[in-house]
Amino acid sequence: MREIKLQAADQSGEFSAFIWEPKGKTSAGAVVVIQEIFGVNDSLRETAQNLMDQGFIAIAPDLFWRLEPGVNISDKTDAEWQKAFDLMNRFDQDKGIEDLKTTLAAARDLPSCNGYAGTIGYCLGGRLAVMMATRSDADVNVSYYGVGLDGLLDEFDNIEAPLMLHIAEKDEFFPAEGRAKLIDGIEDNDWIDAFVYPDVQHAFARVGGVHYDARAATIANGRTTELLAEILE
After folding, report:
1. For residues 84 and 73, is the Cβ–Cβ distance under 8 A?
2. Which residues neighbour 52 within 8 Å (Cβ) at sequence distance 6 or greater?
3. What is the pLDDT of residue 24?
4. Does 171 participate in catalysis according to the annotation?
5. Which of 90, 166, 157 is nearest to 129 (CA)?
6. Strand, coil or helix: 29
7. For burial by CB atoms within 10 Å, which of 20, 27, 100, 132 has the most?
8. Residue 28: what are its φ and ψ, rounded to 5°?
9. Residue 109, SS3?
10. Catalytic one among 75, 166, 202, 211?
11. Any idea where the Dienelactone hydrolase domain is (predicted)?
12. CATH C-level class of 2-232
């Protein structure tokens, strides 16, 4: 893993992005890995490492840099949850999307990249991955338990690349009514594949998380890998 600095599109400063590149591959597709509300933490870094092990370039930008650079917290204590929610509530999602677009362009420009790049995001990052599907030229986007996605339905006509949604049936941060509205709203969109995982909670695929579900995570991750390999290789 190595760290690079990227200039924000609004010229307000530089932010860090962390890159994992597969050894022995001179040309690979890139995946922008979008953080949860816990920052580019140890769990997200392990996810990026796993993507690298699968033969993809993984690049994870520090999206909270305007609030606090270098956030790395977990879901294990109340104090960490309080800090995470405070950061999320103060986070400017539109500026975050601009930082993700900058990261996407930087990923495509890496000497080891084959020119194809997509996104994968979790929780807050799952929402941002959907916003990247509607607002960027990413080649593919994958959202794990994105929150409030029904509020983005008006943008879904802008999608022109594959989008995969992994939805927890018992997501405590995305009420059933909103999930039903989302599923109904995307029914006729050929770009979108949505999967609902029964009897699991939010963050069922978080490495080392309190709600991790091995079976659901394995199934979801397999579907993700298959899609990324199809589009990015």
Report:
1. yes
2. 20, 21, 22, 58
3. 86
4. yes
5. 166
6. strand
7. 132
8. -150, 155
9. helix
10. 202
11. 15-231
12. alpha beta
